[in-house]
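Troubleshooting log. The previous structure file for this entry was overwritten by mistake, so regenerating from the original sequence record. Sequence copied from the archived sheet and checked twice against the printout by T.R.
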Amino acid sequence: MDLISEIAEPPAHLIEAIEANPDNPVAYSVYGDWLLEHGDLLGEIISLTVGHEKTWHEVYETRKEKRAEYMKRWFPEFENTSAQFGWTEGFGTIYRVRAHPTSLGRELFEAICICPGTRFLRELELTLDAGSTDPSALMAHRGFPKTLRSFSFEYGIPIDLAPLVPKLAHVEELSLSQPAHLGPLDLPRLNELTVTGFSATNFDAMVSSKLPALERLTIVGCDGIARFDLPAAPSLERLTAYCRGEIAPLAASPLLKRIRELQLHAFLTDDNLDDFTAVLPAFQHLEELVIGGHKLSEAHQLRLSNALKPRLVLG
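Regenerated output below.
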């Protein structure tokens, strides 16, 4: 990811030390010392955050003022928007960027690319409205910080997200919504994946994904899941599914057969419980089935418990 310093570009070895171990505050402290020596405001903020000799209360107001000054300097056009910038207490640089929603998607990502404080960004969460400028091409061109571990992207209109995938190889948590096209995911470090509003075409394209570290999958909307599987995700054991009248496609999915634990939000009621019990054999192998968001009467809860116990948990 191409980033510039406020004063000058820090030596590569200082940057590489943090990228190699983003959880090491010593590396941030050394990096902050260099910035401080060169008159960089970010260096002052890091010095007030990492290993400071004074108590937290003594530096709180000063640090708060410095951070506000820094944000105004680098993100002036976003001062009155819903973008929020979070700072971890362990590090001095920006830890999390959120926008819910914003119409300046491309402009915000450009600002993130330019700001030195986001060089070691850990979490990025963007929710863009339908009229927002599209940042996807810029994301594919610029890429993301090597320290980024969590990325959530929701856009009001479907777009092609396939070009972004190669840039996310270091991400451990990923949430994507309504892509026009996605394709297979080859993400060796991905541990948690959330997909929302995926079509059958999206699910079919993901079958050849390589996700060796994936343990938890959340699917919001199960209409297109009937043929879905992830054979190259050997660690996947937990599935959370949000279905509204879409139980049959989930029950038919090859993926379900490999899952040990399922959290199912199917909005079950006394009126539609028969639809679920009709495909109940597909769920009998589960070690745990948690059904949340239901409106079942006590009698129907008992009926379901007798059919599935001791695996069933009604939330």
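Residues 1-5 have pLDDT under 50 and may be disordered. Archived copy saved in two places this time.
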